Amino acid sequence: MLIYEVNLTVDAAIVEAFMGWLKPHVEELLGFEGFLKAKVSLDIESQKAEHRTLVVHYYLASEDHYHNYIRDHAPRMRQDGIDRFGNQFTATRRVLTVLNNYPVESD
């Protein structure tokens, strides 16, 4: 399994509009082959700053699915955010390979 992580730094003034756009954006990605699930998180340390930091983890079945996304869909998906919000946000990305999963044990 692969995790495609997108770190978003969003101007506080547009956070609500950005979140409104992000939900269908994530849902569209989940429609691509190999995308299994996604988690959107807010960095709680950023809540009082002039920017908010969001982290999106997309879980993919394989590296091939990631490369297919980058080749076939990423340019359009990324441009959509830029067209809507311009320089009011930044995005950095990285790809992680899951080495181990540890189940939560109950008492």
Chart the SSEs and their pairings:
Layout: E1 2-11, H1 15-30, E2 35-42, E3 51-60, H2 63-72, H3 74-85, E4 89-97
Antiparallel strand pairs: 1-3, 1-4, 2-3
Which terms would index this structure?
107 residues; globular; DUF4286; alpha+beta; Dimeric_a/b-barrel; 3 helices; DUF4286 domain-containing protein
Quick structural gist:
This is DUF4286 domain-containing protein. This protein has 107 residues and is of the alpha+beta class. It has 3 helices and 4 strands.
Description of the structure:
This protein is α+β, with helices and mostly antiparallel strands. The protein has a domain at 1-53 and 78-91. Helix content is 36%, strand content 35%. The radius of gyration is 15 Å and the shape is globular. The two termini are 28 Å apart.
Helix content: 25-40%
Kindly report how far apart the N and C termini lie.
Answer: 28 Å
Number of beta-strand segments = 4
Q: Please tally the helical runs, counting DSSP H or I stretches of 4 or more residues.
A: 3
Q: Mean of residue pLDDT?
A: 95
